[in-house]
């Protein structure tokens, strides 16, 4: 695609990184940025990430071929109809949210623009344009939820795929929103919730809390890193499969606790087999810092 | 300490790294290595990590000033009296186990040698001498549990501290075994158990399991890294505070699940505050790969 007029709403880590990546890979595209924070807009302009940066109220959304909503989860649901109503009919609206059922349902609830849900599997625990990185999506997998109907659905899915390929994505997975949310429950939201619960558990340490904080090393750091990514919490709260999965995880922990007390040898065998299984898993390598 | 005769029993990641670090920092010390695996002994000798390497039965333990037991947790408890009985009276026996109450009780149950429990807060999910690293303990914190009585306790604690300072430790924390185990529950064993439960939860994904594995990215990788460290499981199984903490974590997950369903705004606020708290925590940086 040689020419595209794109607006990115939300110039935080994800939106800012997308702008930087596209600016580098597709210099001919016209990139508009929207952010409610004036300092963020100034940073993005100074970095050359976008051609213009405005508040949402002033953005010329009707001149865009596509708009990417890169805002936290609760605000996203309100923005989908609001932004869609200001775009030209048949243009493409997409998002980056880690839950897909709720945004895709909201997108399907209007007929003016074509909504294509997307979820790039990338992020860090840091936020804001200051930590945006043109290489954030390099090699990443992006889940894309095609609209269920409409004459221009195929073209819209192509366009969103082209945006993410240009940003560096190595793999585009077309999945239904429900299928996505069920899978991402186990791939991301449940790990996130467990990490958050582990951070909060420090408070249960009572008189040992200070020493526990002193002894916390790499294991604690890595296990809980995801808990520092507040934006995952927003997406997780939109995922209707998460509560049941969290209850099942709680039951698994209770079963492990009972086994550690009553059959420690069997517990050690399970944990040892789990360690082997974890080490055999193919997971993306750490990106260099 | 200009001269020391030290034997390290178990030349895996921890024992092997200790040997390599001491060889470099204290070339005058005499280091003997023990491992049941002939290939491991050959590797350690070839790397110059130890002056000699034998099976345990052939080790001249009575010639050592100190013996470090760097073996997995269940075997450790059997080895403490067995190895102690073969050392010269008054020599120092120490360990590296991540739980301290059980080994220290076993050590206190014999009068021949002075047992000083130690726990270096360092490790990776990989095992064996092949991944041993002279820099593994650089900057690490080591918890040391002084014996409760005995005329030579102070000297023994000094010696064990000297070994870990020589290996690169930046901070030695003298703590009681019970205090240690209570704190390490929250700093390490509970994060470990949560990570293991998250790995096992993938199986609950049912038809979404394959897609979940495809979507698993950095968040899943980091949250579950610790679950790949099988040796933590052995130590965790010796920690009597862990089952109760695991049940409390299960209750916290159930409460979060209920809140996500009934008061999603409140759940998002809690998760956002937890994210802020996690990012504000002072944790050791990642070591360069």
Provide structural commentary.
Two copies of one chain form a homodimer. Chain A is of the alpha/beta class. Chain A folds into two domains: 5-175, NAD(P)-binding Rossmann-like Domain (Rossmann fold), CATH 3.40.50.720; 180-280, 6-phosphogluconate dehydrogenase C-terminal fold. Chain A has eleven helices and eight strands. An eight-stranded mixed sheet of chain A has the order 3-2-1-4-5-6-7-8, with helices on both faces. In chain A, helix 3 links the parallel strand 4 and strand 5 (92-95). The longest helix of chain A has 25 residues, at 177-201. At the A-B interface, helix 6, helix 7, helix 8, helix 9 and helix 10 of A face helix 6, helix 7, helix 8, helix 9 and helix 10 of B.
């Amino acid at each position: 695609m040689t020419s595209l007029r794109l607006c990115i709403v939300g110039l935080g880590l994800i939106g800012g990184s997308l702008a930087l990546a596209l600016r580098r890979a597709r210099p001919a595209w016209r990139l508009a940025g929207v952010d409610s924070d004036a300092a963020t807009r100034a940073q993005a302009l100074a970095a050359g990430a976008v051609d213009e940066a405005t508040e949402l109220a002033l953005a010329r959304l009707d001149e865009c071929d596509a708009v990417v909503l890169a805002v936290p989860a609760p605000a996203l649901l309100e923005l989908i109809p609001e932004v869609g109503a200001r775009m030209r009919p048949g243009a493409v609206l997409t998002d980056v949210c880690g839950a897909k059922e709720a945004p895709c349902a909201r997108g399907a609830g209007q007929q003016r623009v074509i909504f294509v849900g997307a979820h790039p599997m990338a992020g860090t625990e840091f936020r804001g344009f200051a930590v945006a990185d043109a290489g954030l999506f390099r090699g990443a997998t992006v889940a894309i939820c095609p609209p269920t109907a409409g004459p221009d659905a195929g073209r819209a899915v192509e366009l969103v795929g082209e945006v993410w390929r240009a940003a560096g994505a190595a793999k585009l997975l077309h999945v239904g929103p429900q299928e996505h949310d069920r899978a991402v429950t186990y791939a991301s939201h449940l790990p996130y919730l467990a990490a958050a619960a582990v951070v909060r558990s420090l408070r249960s340490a009572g008189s040992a809390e200070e020493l526990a904080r002193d002894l916390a090393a790499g294991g604690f750091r890595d296990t809980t890193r995801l808990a520092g990514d507040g934006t995952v919490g927003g997406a997780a709260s939109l995922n209707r499969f998460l509560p049941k999965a969290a209850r099942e995880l709680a039951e698994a922990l209770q079963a492990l606790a009972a086994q550690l007390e009553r059959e420690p040898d069997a517990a050690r065998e399970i944990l040892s087999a789990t360690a082997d299984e974890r080490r055999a898993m193919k997971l993306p390598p750490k990106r260099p810092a």
